[in-house]
Specification:
heterodimer, A: 168 residues, alpha+beta, 5 helices, 5 strands, globular, B: 289 residues, four-stranded antiparallel beta sheet
Chain lengths: 168, 289
């Protein structure tokens, strides 16, 4: 067994650390070492995107990265989306538009959509499909996921215009 | 799936990484984006005893024109290629290629250097670099050496890099005016390897005839293949439908596909022809004929 190494990350705003073997995958670090089980393991072969998290603002598949690589980085998982007891507009969108059925792909889908909206606050239908093309859903046929992301984009847009209005 | 145990190093400089490679010989592997290596380790198709993570080495990620070359750092991510305004304005063939690799999450980590150094004939950049006549900069203990892309791909998963060299830069001669290129890939679904893909890069002369053509092919042989006969045929000729068709046929004849789940060999040869026609036609349009 290789020597354990210290991995420290800032995850959902909190600094956490653990001693891990270098071969520990990031997704196992998140679920087992840090006990945040919202991030799912789906295919375990970097096809399905269920394990998607944000590392330093970029969506990555946490089953295809070692925890030691994330040392010193900032992570966002599904547990970090809710703020002050309020759903993130994406979570609200998935609820309102029925963007899930079994829910297994949802944490990864939310994080990919989150990354997309960070880059493009008003994506077209096609851009949303492109943005979530690394995430598989076997229930919804994607229609309602696209609607859920559009819902969130609208809601976030309204929030911005309200904020701008208020600052005048 | 849990990969076999390994010792992990995170050097801060290239020279440190090279000396680690020398120290640990064949058992050491460079970890770049990891999007091919880690899946292979999980499947135990690769079992390096030592992983040398180059992701924290600064100065290996850039896209710039200098001294007549487009220079791309080995650690440049696919997503960075996709977002590059320089590539958008002058190297659309590289954008075509980067944007059809895997999926957005994989492109956030996967690097152009890793894509080439992995030596997988199904990887996309190889064909495009063959079409562009690129050069590979390998850095080892004795400094840098330049490898022509034609000499880089040796056999399945084997490149001309020695075990203590790192691919640090890709150099592409800046194409003259009236040049254009395109990459066409057929994949069964987003994220799949190419069933077949073809890259074509052309330069036109003053009279509108083809001065130079580069054609590369993905996943139709043990390495990315250069369609030399198809390229030679086009030199000095007008790129009309008949000549494009004949060149595409020559490329199909030069391809050596194997039958697999993605289709029989004859089907893939047919695809080479069709995709070569599309790539050449698009290259011609982009060259501003």
């Amino acid at each position: 067994m290789a020597k354990k190494q210290l991995v420290q990350v800032k995850i959902n705003g909190r600094t956490r650390e653990a001693m891990v073997e270098p071969r520990l995958l990031l997704v196992h670090f998140i679920r087992e070492s840090l006990q945040l089980t919202g991030t799912h393991i789906g295919c375990d072969t970097s096809n399905c995107g269920a394990c998607t998290v944000l590392l330093n603002g970029k969506a990555v598949k946490s089953c295809t990265m070692f925890a030691v690589q994330a040392d010193g980085g900032e992570l966002l998982t599904v547990e970090g989306l809710m703020q002050d007891g309020q759903f993130h507009p994406l979570q609200e969108g998935f609820k309102q538009e029925h963007g899930l059925q079994c829910g297994f792909c949802t944490p990864g889908m939310l994080l990919s959509a989150y990354a997309l909206l960070q880059q493009n606050s008003n994506p077209t239908d096609q851009q949303i499909r492109w943005g979530i093309s690394g995430n598989l859903c076997r229930c919804t046929g994607y229609q309602n996921i696209v609607k859920a992301v559009q819902f969130a984009a609208r809601k976030l847009g309204e929030g911005k215009s309200v904020a701008q209005g208020g600052s005048k | 799936m849990i990969p076999p145990s390994f010792e992990y190093f995170r050097p801060a400089t290239i020279s440190e990484a090279v000396s680690l490679l020398q120290q640990h010989g064949d058992e050491a592997k460079i970890l770049s984006g990891g999007q091919s290596l880690i899946p292979m380790m999980k499947l135990r198709l690769a079992r390096p005893g030592f992983l040398i993570d180059i992701n924290r080495i600064s100065g290996l990620s850039y896209i710039e024109e200098e001294g007549g070359f487009l220079k791309i750092g080995g650690l440049t991510r696919e997503a960075e290629l996709e977002a590059s305004s320089l590539l958008h304005s002058r190297y659309t063939i590289i954008l075509d290629t980067a944007s059809v690799i895997a999926d957005p999450q994989v492109r956030n980590l996967a690097t152009i250097g890793g894509n080439l150094a992995h030596g997988d004939p199904a990887n996309d950049h190889g064909a495009t670099m063959l079409a562009l006549g690129a050069q590979i900069v390998a850095t080892g203990a004795k400094g840098q050496r330049i490898i022509r892309i034609e000499d880089f791909f040796v056999s399945l998963f084997t490149t001309a890099l020695t075990h203590d060299e790192i691919l640090t830069e890709i150099r592409i001669p800046v194409p003259p005016p009236k040049s254009g290129g395109a990459y066409f890939k057929l994949e069964r679904k987003v994220g799949d390897f190419a069933t077949v893909a073809v890259a074509a890069q052309i330069t036109l002369d003053g009279g509108g005839a083809c001065q130079k053509a580069g054609i590369g092919m993905t996943n139709v042989g043990a390495t990315p293949l250069k369609a030399k006969k198809a390229e030679d045929f086009l030199r000095g000729k007008k790129l009309d439908a008949a000549n494009i068709n004949h060149s595409a046929q020559l490329a199909a004849d030069e391809s050596q596909p194997s039958p697999d789940l993605r289709g029989p060999a004859e089907y893939k040869k047919g695809l080479v022809k069709e995709l070569a026609k599309r790539a050449l036609s698009s290259a011609l349009q982009r060259a501003g004929s």
